[in-house]
């Protein structure tokens, strides 16, 4: 069921930063979703092995304050010391499962908030015996604060929720604060791979990531043209008439399979924007 909380109004005026800590902006909205029989069987059968067992925090989808995912935790949970790749928002689990199957020399962690997505990832892991794949049902923004410095080789964020309405752009997961967590969690030379099929989100990524102040270098090799102003959901068709500028992006990441979600975007004539940001 969807999680809800009630709290008393503060007795003193709080700063914006303090309010953000009390009520952080989420990049997702919890929705209740009943698992069908097949997914429920997968959860019951495989969760004990593939779903990470972590001490939980007081809030929904958060882990305990003192939890740290470091190399020692990786060795215990995966049973080896291989490099770690983290996918933020694994959706139906198709991509991370395919990557785990193709790269047994790496460990993979799928982060997902929705029950059906978690269950699908568990189903793929169990069906294909993917011992290098683990799943965590967590709020990624909160969870990244529990990652040890340099614990991950790569971090993937493919087709995040675009939050198309202008007033919701603050909910987009690619933000300076999250980028700081990503950079800290990456090993030296590690990369953050991002993909979106929403033009306005592509502009947002460039605005957050390209100026170098966050300690990332854009490792792209191709030039694309994008509007230089943001549009909301209702006026997205007006983007073509706006001033445009050139930006650097990446070729399609060949380690990402063509999922059903991406196929739908292509069928709707959307352009896929790929980004590779290397820890500088």
Automatic annotation (TrEMBL):
GO terms for cellular component: tRNA methyltransferase complex. S-adenosyl-L-methionine binds at residues 87, 112, 139, 161. Its EC number is 2.1.1.33. Keywords: Methyltransferase, S-adenosyl-L-methionine, Transferase, tRNA processing. NCBIfam families: tRNA (guanosine(46)-N7)-methyltransferase TrmB. Belongs to the class I-like SAM-binding methyltransferase superfamily. TrmB family. HAMAP family: tRNA_methyltr_TrmB. Catalyzes the formation of N(7)-methylguanine at position 46 (m7G46) in tRNA. This is tRNA (guanine-N(7)-)-methyltransferase. The gene is trmB.
